[in-house]
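Q: I'm writing up a methods section and want to include an example of the input and output format. Could you take the sequence below and give the corresponding predicted structure tokens, formatted cleanly so I can copy it straight into the document?
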Amino acid sequence: MPVYAARKGLTPSCYFEPEALAATEGAHFTRINYEGYFFCKPEERARFLADPIAYCGLLTDPVSKLRFRPQADSKRAEHEGVLFFFAGDETAQLFAQAPGDFFLPGYEMEEEEAQPEPTG
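A: Here is the clean output for your methods example:
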């Protein structure tokens, strides 16, 4: 489970059953590019991974950071168990040269600032 979600105590909804809460251990989670997907059952995760392009929607190219919708002919690579799709051949080639440089998005989510209590 992503560190930020765990730290915030977030309980995500199941991808295929949005009204249900997803489990948060590894067999119920997968990451494609920088997007995370949670599932109620390991079988749902397997269904998703059998055809991720049908389900994933927009992704962020790990090199260019452009948002795009992967197609059947999109370049793809796997690094440390994470599937990556690319918006173009050039970004796929750059990723292949140094995948560790692009494994994480290169920024961290900031904590929310405490808002002052309203007066009056």
